[in-house]
Protein backbone atom coordinates (compact mmCIF):
# COMPACT_ATOMS: atom_id res chain seq x y z
CA UNK A 1 0.00 0.00 0.00
CA UNK A 2 1.30 3.45 -0.85
CA UNK A 3 1.90 6.09 1.76
CA UNK A 4 -0.95 8.14 0.27
CA UNK A 5 -3.34 5.20 0.67
CA UNK A 6 -2.29 4.79 4.28
CA UNK A 7 -2.94 8.44 4.93
CA UNK A 8 -6.45 8.26 3.46
CA UNK A 9 -7.66 6.31 6.49
CA UNK A 10 -7.74 7.80 9.98
CA UNK A 11 -5.14 6.56 12.46
CA UNK A 12 -6.21 4.55 15.49
CA UNK A 13 -6.03 6.30 18.85
CA UNK A 14 -4.23 4.30 21.51
CA UNK A 15 -3.35 4.65 25.15
CA UNK A 16 -0.56 2.84 26.92
CA UNK A 17 2.49 2.97 29.17
CA UNK A 18 5.69 4.38 27.82
CA UNK A 19 9.26 4.87 28.92
CA UNK A 20 10.54 8.34 28.08
CA UNK A 21 14.14 7.64 29.04
CA UNK A 22 16.36 4.87 30.40
CA UNK A 23 15.35 5.38 34.05
CA UNK A 24 13.04 2.36 33.97
CA UNK A 25 9.97 4.43 34.80
CA UNK A 26 6.83 3.99 32.67
CA UNK A 27 4.10 6.60 32.53
CA UNK A 28 0.75 7.03 30.72
CA UNK A 29 1.08 7.77 27.02
CA UNK A 30 -1.46 8.76 24.36
CA UNK A 31 -0.42 7.94 20.82
CA UNK A 32 -1.77 6.81 17.46
CA UNK A 33 -1.33 3.60 15.54
CA UNK A 34 -1.54 3.34 11.80
CA UNK A 35 -4.96 2.99 10.18
CA UNK A 36 -6.30 -0.53 9.81
CA UNK A 37 -5.39 -1.37 6.20
CA UNK A 38 -6.83 -4.14 4.05
CA UNK A 39 -4.40 -6.76 5.38
CA UNK A 40 -4.60 -5.68 9.02
CA UNK A 41 -6.56 -6.57 12.09
CA UNK A 42 -7.15 -4.28 15.04
CA UNK A 43 -6.90 -6.03 18.39
CA UNK A 44 -8.28 -4.90 21.73
CA UNK A 45 -5.44 -6.00 24.00
CA UNK A 46 -6.52 -8.18 26.93
CA UNK A 47 -3.16 -9.44 28.25
CA UNK A 48 0.49 -8.65 27.67
CA UNK A 49 3.32 -10.55 29.29
CA UNK A 50 6.35 -8.92 30.89
CA UNK A 51 9.55 -10.25 29.30
CA UNK A 52 13.09 -9.50 30.37
CA UNK A 53 13.50 -8.10 26.86
CA UNK A 54 11.05 -5.35 27.82
CA UNK A 55 13.35 -4.32 30.64
CA UNK A 56 16.32 -4.25 28.27
CA UNK A 57 14.28 -2.10 25.88
CA UNK A 58 13.13 0.34 28.55
CA UNK A 59 16.62 0.70 30.00
CA UNK A 60 18.35 1.06 26.63
CA UNK A 61 20.41 -2.11 27.06
CA UNK A 62 20.15 -3.72 23.60
CA UNK A 63 19.56 -1.21 20.82
CA UNK A 64 19.65 2.48 20.97
CA UNK A 65 16.03 2.58 22.18
CA UNK A 66 13.73 5.02 20.41
CA UNK A 67 11.99 7.00 23.15
CA UNK A 68 9.20 7.25 23.97
CA UNK A 69 8.85 3.50 23.77
CA UNK A 70 5.88 1.29 24.62
CA UNK A 71 7.19 -2.17 25.55
CA UNK A 72 5.31 -5.44 25.24
CA UNK A 73 5.61 -8.27 22.74
CA UNK A 74 3.61 -11.06 24.38
CA UNK A 75 0.19 -9.85 23.37
CA UNK A 76 -3.21 -11.49 23.46
CA UNK A 77 -6.37 -9.66 22.50
CA UNK A 78 -9.74 -9.74 20.81
CA UNK A 79 -10.09 -8.83 17.16
CA UNK A 80 -12.34 -5.78 16.80
CA UNK A 81 -11.73 -4.92 13.14
CA UNK A 82 -10.57 -6.80 10.06
CA UNK A 83 -9.35 -5.45 6.72
CA UNK A 84 -11.08 -6.72 3.61
CA UNK A 85 -8.21 -9.04 2.65
CA UNK A 86 -8.03 -10.71 6.06
CA UNK A 87 -8.80 -14.45 5.90
CA UNK A 88 -7.45 -15.84 9.18
CA UNK A 89 -9.55 -13.83 11.64
CA UNK A 90 -13.10 -12.70 12.21
CA UNK A 91 -14.26 -10.00 14.61
CA UNK A 92 -14.47 -11.57 18.07
CA UNK A 93 -11.62 -14.04 17.55
CA UNK A 94 -8.69 -14.06 19.94
CA UNK A 95 -5.36 -13.14 18.36
CA UNK A 96 -1.80 -13.36 19.62
CA UNK A 97 1.04 -11.07 18.57
CA UNK A 98 4.68 -11.78 19.35
CA UNK A 99 7.98 -10.00 18.72
CA UNK A 100 7.65 -9.26 15.01
CA UNK A 101 5.12 -7.10 13.16
CA UNK A 102 6.79 -6.50 9.83
CA UNK A 103 9.21 -7.70 7.18
CA UNK A 104 9.73 -7.22 3.45
CA UNK A 105 7.50 -10.15 2.51
CA UNK A 106 9.46 -10.93 -0.62
CA UNK A 107 12.99 -12.06 0.26
CA UNK A 108 13.96 -15.76 0.42
CA UNK A 109 13.58 -15.82 4.20
CA UNK A 110 10.10 -14.28 4.11
CA UNK A 111 9.01 -16.73 1.42
CA UNK A 112 9.98 -19.59 3.72
CA UNK A 113 8.11 -18.13 6.73
CA UNK A 114 11.43 -17.17 8.30
CA UNK A 115 10.61 -13.48 8.64
CA UNK A 116 12.79 -13.27 11.73
CA UNK A 117 15.80 -13.50 9.40
CA UNK A 118 14.52 -10.84 7.00
CA UNK A 119 16.89 -7.86 6.79
CA UNK A 120 13.83 -5.59 7.06
CA UNK A 121 12.27 -7.38 10.02
CA UNK A 122 10.37 -4.98 12.27
CA UNK A 123 10.16 -5.47 16.02
CA UNK A 124 6.75 -5.05 17.62
CA UNK A 125 8.04 -2.31 19.92
CA UNK A 126 10.86 -0.58 18.04
CA UNK A 127 11.24 0.92 14.58
CA UNK A 128 8.92 2.22 11.89
CA UNK A 129 6.20 0.74 9.77
CA UNK A 130 6.24 1.08 5.99
CA UNK A 131 4.04 4.18 6.21
CA UNK A 132 6.43 5.90 8.59
CA UNK A 133 4.41 5.40 11.79
CA UNK A 134 6.26 4.16 14.85
CA UNK A 135 5.91 0.62 16.14
CA UNK A 136 4.63 0.59 19.71
CA UNK A 137 4.26 -2.53 21.84
CA UNK A 138 1.50 -4.16 23.79
CA UNK A 139 1.49 -2.27 27.10
CA UNK A 140 -1.48 -0.46 25.61
CA UNK A 141 -5.15 -0.81 24.86
CA UNK A 142 -5.03 -1.79 21.20
CA UNK A 143 -2.82 -2.83 18.33
CA UNK A 144 -3.07 -2.70 14.56
CA UNK A 145 -1.16 -5.53 12.97
CA UNK A 146 -0.97 -7.27 9.61
CA UNK A 147 -2.66 -10.65 9.98
CA UNK A 148 0.51 -12.38 8.78
CA UNK A 149 2.13 -11.49 12.11
CA UNK A 150 -0.75 -12.58 14.32
CA UNK A 151 -1.76 -16.07 15.33
CA UNK A 152 -5.27 -17.31 15.98
CA UNK A 153 -5.61 -18.42 19.60
CA UNK A 154 -7.96 -21.43 19.85
CA UNK A 155 -11.10 -21.27 21.97
CA UNK A 156 -10.66 -22.36 25.56
CA UNK A 157 -7.07 -21.23 26.04
CA UNK A 158 -6.28 -19.56 29.37
CA UNK A 159 -5.37 -16.20 27.92
CA UNK A 160 -3.20 -14.85 30.74
CA UNK A 161 -1.05 -17.98 30.47
CA UNK A 162 -1.03 -17.84 26.68
CA UNK A 163 0.50 -14.37 26.43
CA UNK A 164 4.06 -15.31 27.55
CA UNK A 165 4.22 -18.02 24.89
CA UNK A 166 4.08 -15.37 22.20
CA UNK A 167 7.72 -14.39 22.81
CA UNK A 168 9.65 -17.54 23.47
CA UNK A 169 7.12 -19.99 22.06
CA UNK A 170 7.28 -23.65 22.81
CA UNK A 171 7.90 -26.83 20.87
CA UNK A 172 6.59 -30.19 21.98
CA UNK A 173 8.21 -33.57 21.42
CA UNK A 174 6.22 -36.64 22.32
CA UNK A 175 8.24 -39.67 23.43
CA UNK A 176 6.57 -43.06 23.30
CA UNK A 177 7.47 -46.72 23.01
CA UNK A 178 4.74 -47.13 20.38
CA UNK A 179 5.53 -45.82 16.89
CA UNK A 180 1.82 -46.21 16.14
CA UNK A 181 1.11 -43.20 18.36
CA UNK A 182 3.03 -40.82 16.12
CA UNK A 183 0.06 -39.93 13.92
CA UNK A 184 -2.14 -39.10 16.90
CA UNK A 185 0.63 -37.11 18.61
CA UNK A 186 1.38 -34.98 15.57
CA UNK A 187 -2.08 -34.60 14.08
CA UNK A 188 -4.31 -34.43 17.15
CA UNK A 189 -2.03 -33.16 19.91
CA UNK A 190 -0.12 -30.88 17.56
CA UNK A 191 3.31 -32.13 18.63
CA UNK A 192 6.25 -30.79 16.64
CA UNK A 193 8.15 -34.07 16.67
CA UNK A 194 7.94 -37.65 17.91
CA UNK A 195 10.59 -39.93 19.40
CA UNK A 196 10.42 -43.69 19.72
CA UNK A 197 11.86 -44.44 23.14
CA UNK A 198 13.69 -47.61 22.09
CA UNK A 199 15.32 -46.06 19.04
CA UNK A 200 18.86 -45.39 20.30
CA UNK A 201 19.77 -43.17 17.41
CA UNK A 202 16.77 -40.89 18.00
CA UNK A 203 17.43 -40.74 21.72
CA UNK A 204 21.07 -39.75 21.27
CA UNK A 205 20.07 -37.02 18.84
CA UNK A 206 17.63 -35.64 21.45
CA UNK A 207 20.22 -35.36 24.22
CA UNK A 208 20.65 -31.86 25.56
CA UNK A 209 17.83 -30.45 23.45
CA UNK A 210 14.90 -30.20 25.86
CA UNK A 211 14.07 -27.52 28.41
CA UNK A 212 11.61 -29.61 30.38
CA UNK A 213 10.08 -33.07 30.50
CA UNK A 214 6.54 -33.98 31.56
CA UNK A 215 6.70 -37.66 32.47
CA UNK A 216 3.33 -39.44 32.43
CA UNK A 217 4.59 -43.05 32.58
CA UNK A 218 3.29 -44.59 35.81
CA UNK A 219 5.51 -47.70 35.94
CA UNK A 220 9.09 -47.53 37.34
CA UNK A 221 11.61 -46.44 34.70
CA UNK A 222 14.85 -44.46 34.49
CA UNK A 223 14.42 -40.70 34.09
CA UNK A 224 15.94 -39.18 30.95
CA UNK A 225 17.88 -36.30 32.49
CA UNK A 226 20.37 -36.50 29.61
CA UNK A 227 17.75 -34.98 27.34
CA UNK A 228 17.68 -31.74 29.28
CA UNK A 229 19.61 -28.77 27.99
CA UNK A 230 22.40 -27.54 30.25
CA UNK A 231 21.21 -23.93 30.35
ZN1 LIG B 1 10.42 -11.60 25.10
ZN1 LIG C 1 12.04 -10.36 3.86
Automatic annotation (TrEMBL):
Which SUPFAM superfamilies does the UniProt record give? GroES-like, NAD(P)-binding Rossmann-fold domains
* Annotated PANTHER family: ALDEHYDE REDUCTASE
Q: Mind listing the GO biological process terms from this record?
A: lignin biosynthetic process
For this UniProt record, the keywords arranged alphabetically read as follows:
Metal-binding, Oxidoreductase, Zinc
Q: What is this protein called?
A: Alcohol dehydrogenase-like N-terminal domain-containing protein
Q: Which cofactor does it need?
A: Zn(2+)
What the entry lists under PROSITE patterns is as follows: ADH_ZINC (PS00059)
Signal peptide stretch:
none
Name all Alcohol dehydrogenase-like N-terminal domain ranges: 38-154
Cited Gene3D superfamilies: Medium-chain alcohol dehydrogenases, catalytic domain (3.90.180.10), NAD(P)-binding Rossmann-like Domain (3.40.50.720)
